[in-house]
Amino acid sequence: MSNDVDNSRRKFIAAGVAGTAGLVLAPGVTLLDMAHARPAGEAASSAKRWGLLIDSTKCATGCNDCVTACGKENGVASTGHPETDPQWIRKIELKEIKSGRSHSLPMMCQHCAEPPCVDVCPTGASFKRADGIVLVDRHICIGCRYCMMACPYKARSFVHEEHEDQNPDVPRGKGCVEACTLCVHRIDKDQQPACVEACSAGNHGAMLFGDLNDSNSEISKRIATFATTQVRPDLALNTGVRYQGI
Amino acid sequence: MNNDVFRKNKDAAFYFLLGAIGLVALAGLGAAFYMEHYGHVVTGMTNQIVWGLPHVFALFLIVAASGVLNMASIGSVFGKPVYKARAALSGLLAIAMLAGGLMVLMLDLGRSDRLIIAMTYLNLKSVFALNVFLYTIFFSVVVLYLWTMMDRKMHGYSRYVGFAAFIWRLLLTTGTGAIFGFLVARQAYGSALLPPMFIIMSFSFGLAVFMIVQAVMYRWNDRVLDEEILRRLKNLLAVFVAAVLYFTAVYHMTNLYFAKQTDFERFILLDGGIYTTLFWVGQVLIGSVLPLFLLFTAKKSSTVVVASLLVILGGFFQLYVFLIGGQAFPLNLFPGMEQSSSFFDGVIHSYSPSLPEFLLGMGGIAVAALITAIVAKVLNFMPDDTPHPASH
Amino acid sequence: MINPAKRRSVLGWLAASLLALLLAGAMPATAQDGQGGHKLIAKGDKCVRDVDFMRRNHMNILKHQRVETMRKGVRGSQDSLKNCIECHVNPATNSVASSKEDFCMGCHSYAAVKVDCFECHSSKPKASIVGTHPIIAPGQQSEGKDKQSGLSGKIPRQMQAKLASLNMGEGVK
């Protein structure tokens, strides 16, 4: 049950290695590097909390760039069975019933601080990484789908069919539940999630990725300045994905 | 002694029965293998209707399994001899049905091959994981209970073990209800009413199953159930059926008073198509009103059997509406807004159960029947009322 | 009807073959090269640990690393499955598990041990990863970068060198 094998030893060694590297290399260069990427071999830490800010006023109806990019990055493709096809990210078109005001936004795993999917998972396959990313450990997922019953955002999909030609960085297969990973494999390489990258590449600027724990990050500054909302705030799940203009 | 239940001159009939049930069980296993091989794409279940027909069967079997033990509990805990005579049979049925239900649940998993992981990696915050303990301890306690009833040397402990079994079966059904009671996401679930409602449902379904099995056993042995006992059991069943109806009414009334829930209630009670029909005709009329009428007017044991069958049928309808209907109503992510997407947001989700799902569910019932038939053949489970006249 | 003696002997056979199967399963390391067992497909000049150690413990190393990567986000370790695949890929199939000739299946089909990795994981290397390969020396790395598909051409040479130096079994035919 415990996955914290030799944690303290590893931390000690990592610290030692980092220290040695600092002595050998020019100190200035090391510090600059450390400030950016997490060095290989170091675990994700709770000092960071990754999040997204989505500005629905900049998100155009009919634009699907983020969805396409996600599918390409993670190998999530349609198999011609829309009802059983997994969807990690989807565009929702909204229309206020009273006023008729309509807008559009991408919906995906909200990476809650209090994720119901993690609470209900019988094996602990659903888990939240130290830096706030909610993931499924497919090694111990038994495919019971209780997390899908528990998720208020319909963010999770069950893989109904066999898959081949996975991206080596994104393992996924039949019989397990999956969802948006916030492109954790890219984040670990100090890159942005594929959807965010595609959104800015298309000059839409509707998605912003960053560290919610760092008050100097752009995302934190924006949240501190503008009115932002969480989806289903009544559930008090403290989501990592925030929206503007809903 | 070992032929009390299924007598020798009916051996051929018994083996035919066993073969027939065995075939159904095999078909269930075949269906599970088929689903495992091709993936759940061959079932009617989707990313919208996450749990389907197999779960309706599994829920029924698990709920009824704890309920059927009620006979034993009334006997041991409250010291009623009429029920004590039926305690062994009720214990056997409880084990058999729980085994059948769990089999369906396990074989429906996306990765049934990881059973060992399900039992070794436990997230204790999960109601599912807690249920693993509830089920295994239930099995052990009931086996122990059967031992105290069947071994003369152990008779003295019967009362205490029976009491433990009674407490544990209440916990078990609470756990089953809590699977849904603790779900915050969906409008159909997430209510503290569900665990007690599941307990009362277990009383009703369990007793109905017991009545039918008992009737079959009496018939097989050309014996007639004492009229006074029949009268008591049928009245008890009627009380349980009425109680389920009461809980159903409270559940829907509560929802109707909450503005945010009225859309969902409108769906189930008024314009939900198949779910509305199954609710009013299936659960209320066939599963509650009709059996109540039959039970209060019944003079013959065959009428009680028909009423029991209707209660079981109604139970399936009720669980179908609860489980599938509860998922068919879409999640409301943005209250006050119309929602649409490629992922079926904002629309009623469709579900058409497939043959493999049905066969898997029937397989669970068949396994329960198989366990009951074989054990009842080997050991003596026939209710014996001779030393306890019904006047008690 | 089967007479009891016959039934007993059938049961005996069954038990004996079951025992044999169990023993075979318990001693995968006895599967010698050339017995239809493991064929070496590799680049670089040595594995991340001793070959003997890897035969017995590769699953533990992989399991340990999967926890590190999945749960903690520790990436780029030489013990990662991706790294294994990178070295052990069969150039003929560009996979470690697509046929019995491939590295993983060579042993696993011989020992009749199910591999559960490739239900989800790709059994093929990611082309772009060659550049950051931890084992390949910097000189080789730039060679790999120059070529778009770093797998063809270069690997057989490396493999031949490795096979010659380690003198291991038959190697790739």
Strands, helices and their partners?
The complex is a heterotrimer of chains A (246), B (392) and C (173).
Chain A: H1 7-24, H2 27-36, E1 50-55, H3 65-74, E2 89-96, E3 102-108, H4 116-120, E4 126-128, E5 134-136, H5 146-150, E6 157-158, E7 177-178, H6 184-187, H7 194-201, E8 207-211, H8 218-225, E9 241-244
Parallel strand pairs in A: 1-9
Antiparallel strand pairs in A: 1-8, 2-3, 4-5, 6-7
Helix pairs in contact in A: 3-7
Chain B: H1 11-38, H2 53-68, H3 70-77, H4 81-84, H5 87-108, H6 115-120, H7 127-150, H8 158-181, H9 194-220, H10 227-257, H11 262-271, H12 274-297, H13 301-328, E1 337-341, H14 355-378
Helix pairs in contact in B: 1-14, 2-5, 2-8, 2-9, 2-13, 2-14, 3-5, 3-8, 5-7, 5-14, 7-8, 8-9, 9-10, 9-13, 10-12, 10-13, 11-12, 12-13
Chain C: H1 4-26, H2 51-72, H3 81-88, H4 103-111, H5 138-146, H6 154-166
Structure description:
The complex is a heterotrimer of chains A (246), B (392) and C (173). Chain A has 246 residues and is α+β, with helices and mostly antiparallel strands. Chain A folds into 2 domains: 1-43, no CATH class; 50-244, Alpha-Beta Plaits. Chain A contains 8 helices and 9 strands. Chain A has helices spanning 7-24, 27-36, 65-74, 116-120, 146-150, 184-187, 194-201, 218-225, and strands spanning 50-55, 89-96, 102-108, 126-128, 134-136, 157-158, 177-178, 207-211, 241-244. A 3-stranded mixed beta sheet of chain A has the order 8-1-9. In chain A, strand 4 and strand 5 form a beta hairpin. In chain A, helix 3 crosses helix 7 (194-201). Chain A is globular and about 40 Å long. Helices cover 70% and strands 1% of the residues of chain B. Chain B has a single domain (8-330, 351-378), classed as Formate dehydrogenase/DMSO reductase domain (Formate dehydrogenase/DMSO reductase fold, Up-down Bundle), CATH 1.20.1630. In chain B, helix 1 (11-38) packs antiparallel against helix 14 (355-378) and helix 3 runs antiparallel to helix 5 (87-108). Chain B has helices spanning 11-38, 53-68, 70-77, 81-84, 87-108, 115-120, 127-150, 158-181, 194-220, 227-257, 262-271, 274-297, 301-328, 355-378, and one strand spanning 337-341. Chain B is globular and about 70 Å long. Chain C is mostly helical. Chain C has one domain (39-166). Helix content of chain C is 49%, strand content 0%. Chain C is built from 6 helices and no strands. The model of chain C is unreliable at 23-37 and 128-173 (pLDDT under 50).
